[in-house]
Amino acid sequence: MIKIILFILLIAGFACSGPKDNEYETIQLGRLLNQVEELLVKDIGENVNYIPLETTDESLIGKRAYARVLKDKILVGSFQQPIKMFDKKTGKFIRIVGSIGQGANEYTLQDDIPVFWTDDLQETIYVQTEGINLLCFDVEGNPLSSICLPDNFPSLTAVSQVTTENKLYIYKQTLFTKEDYKIYMYDIYNGQTKKYFFNTDETLPTDFSQMPLIISGYGSIPVSTSCHIFSLKEDKMVFFHTENPCLWTFNREVYFKENFNDTIYQIKGDKINPVLVFDLGNRHCSYEDRFNIEGSQNKISIDYILEGKNVLFFVFRTNYYHLQESNTYLGVYNKHDKSVKITNKPYIKDSANNFIIEPLQTATSDGQLVGLMDAASFIENMNRENILDLSEEDNPIAVIVES
């Protein structure tokens, strides 16, 4: 109860009024670490589709691939490759979206990865270029416009973002900047900007105990282009993931949960309201202690959440600052019966096909959960002869779970 009150006080003076009793629910998680089970596809959705993505010289996908999905299209970005578009039903390659460079309809790579996202409702593709600039493409991959955000808008190269109904929301880390807003909204139609969640946290000292590390593709967050690791004095550490999917949309609403804050918030109008709280019990790390290495061994850090129609799928870790000893879990919260199920295995089991699925990457605004599996892993784990005409060198297989 003390934890929940602290969270309410945290936002009461910022962008919203304090919630009334029982306006949010709790997800009982902390006590389940001794009750791990096998996580099944049926725990997440009603069916799963596997779509092999066509492999040609033009459509070849590189390492560190991640996907976004529109109504009839699958988009994939990967290491040192432009964005590739495929048919959602057949996996047939359609086209390359834009190109890498600094000219018209060209975009740069962040840590050698294209950074892009979609507005599912408007069927629009957004690609990060440099600074405060965006490229916009239609559902067929045709260029629409180049968008220059206001000068006072945070640089897009170090934020998390989501777009819905032509409104761009970004989450800005405020590790070293006090008295700044964490969330910005830019209305692409009328150019208006709103700010939410004013930061009053104490800033971190910049007297590092060693040089910061930048590791590409590190950690359990598949869409993150890189992780910046800051080792501070007094036995403190910070993991800063770029492109951390802490913002998401579902059913035309925008939600977010930042790391070490166990509350899921909804951005509604001019307010930010708590809607769900992870009850981590004695596994909870207080927000003030979130950078302390000492005592973090048994604490839970929730890496990301994907929202389906009937469930929340989430990935979390314990012992997160002890890199060689960190443990990763997958979990599912059923929004109807409020049940929670977790596993300490790095996969979801598809019992119908006697197959295992790697952790899912992203979700659409209507609740489809999406992932990618490399062909070699798919062939090895499917354990069924001649189910698909694939070779280990082929493009990944898109996995779409519908609930």
Protein model, in words:
The protein is 6% helix and 42% strand. It is mainly beta. It has a single domain, classed as 6 Propeller (Neuraminidase), CATH 2.120.10. The strands form 9 sheets. It has a 5-stranded mixed beta sheet, with helices on one face. The protein has a 4-stranded antiparallel beta sheet with strand order 2-32-31-30. It has a 4-stranded antiparallel beta sheet with strand order 3-4-5-6, with no helix packed on it. Strand 24 and strand 25 (311-318) form a beta hairpin. The longest helix has 11 residues, at 2-12.
Features of this protein?
globular; five-stranded mixed sheet; 32 strands; 3 helices
How would the blueprint of this fold be written?
Elements: H1 2-12, E1 25-28, H2 41-44, E2 47-52, E3 66-69, E4 73-78, E5 81-87, E6 93-97, E7 99-100, E8 106-107, E9 116-119, E10 124-128, E11 133-137, E12 143-148, E13 159-164, E14 167-172, E15 181-187, E16 193-198, E17 213-216, E18 226-232, E19 236-241, E20 247-250, E21 253-256, E22 263-268, E23 271-279, E24 300-307, E25 311-318, E26 327-334, E27 340-343, E28 348-350, E29 355-357, E30 362-363, E31 369-373, H3 375-382, E32 397-402
Parallel strand pairs: 1-23, 7-8
Antiparallel strand pairs: 2-32, 3-4, 4-5, 5-6, 9-10, 10-11, 11-12, 13-14, 14-15, 15-16, 17-18, 18-19, 20-21, 21-22, 22-23, 24-25, 25-26, 26-27, 28-29, 30-31, 31-32
